[in-house]
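To the wet lab folks,

You asked to see what we're planning to order before we commit. Fair enough. Below is the target structure as tokens, and below that is the sequence we designed to fit it. If anything looks off to you, flag it before the synthesis order goes out.
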């Protein structure tokens, strides 16, 4: 059976497998879900345009590489400001007292600013590890860098975050 990516069924399977992963990966670079979705769609368009050249087993790598390159091109032209608060990751769980709400909001603002102050490389590694729960080796493969480079970026991100907001 021919498993060509040019077949709609195969392409749809690849889309279902990787669209969310690619979008989340790009979200950490942009800090903006709308841009992440655009880049993800453009990466899939590029895959479709090259469906006869890309084997199915290389589709994931092609998508991440293409999306990463698109992201890097945008980053070269503008400074990324992380709008992490829009992701809804830090929702209030307890409404015990007004003081608690105020402290929680102040901490969230402090964290958002500390994350925005990280370099793109530090923020990317930190969020992939802490939010996506990826291991250093997986991040290294995804970004095309060594595990040592991932460790160094994570270490420097943690140092900077601890300096700005305390123990992370």
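Sequence we intend to order:
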């Amino acid at each position: 059976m021919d498993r060509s990516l040019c077949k709609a069924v195969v392409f749809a399977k690849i889309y279902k497998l990787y669209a969310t992963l690619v979008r989340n990966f790009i979200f950490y670079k942009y800090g903006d879900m709308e841009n992440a979705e655009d880049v993800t769609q453009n990466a899939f368009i590029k895959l479709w345009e090259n469906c006869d050249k890309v084997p199915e087993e290389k589709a994931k790598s092609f998508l991440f590489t293409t999306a990463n390159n698109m992201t890097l091109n945008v980053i070269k032209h503008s400074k990324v400001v992380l709008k992490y608060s829009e992701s809804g990751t830090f929702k209030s769980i307890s409404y015990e007292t007004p003081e608690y709400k105020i402290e929680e909001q102040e901490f969230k603002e402090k964290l958002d600013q500390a994350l925005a102050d990280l370099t793109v490389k530090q923020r990317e590694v930190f969020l992939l590890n802490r939010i996506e729960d990826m291991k250093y080796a997986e991040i290294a493969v995804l970004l095309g860098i060594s595990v040592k480079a991932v460790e160094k970026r994570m270490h420097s991100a943690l140092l900077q975050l601890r300096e700005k907001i305390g123990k992370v």
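Structural context that might help your review: The chain has two domains: 8-77, 95-165. Residues 8-30 form the longest helix (23 residues).

Thanks,
Computational group
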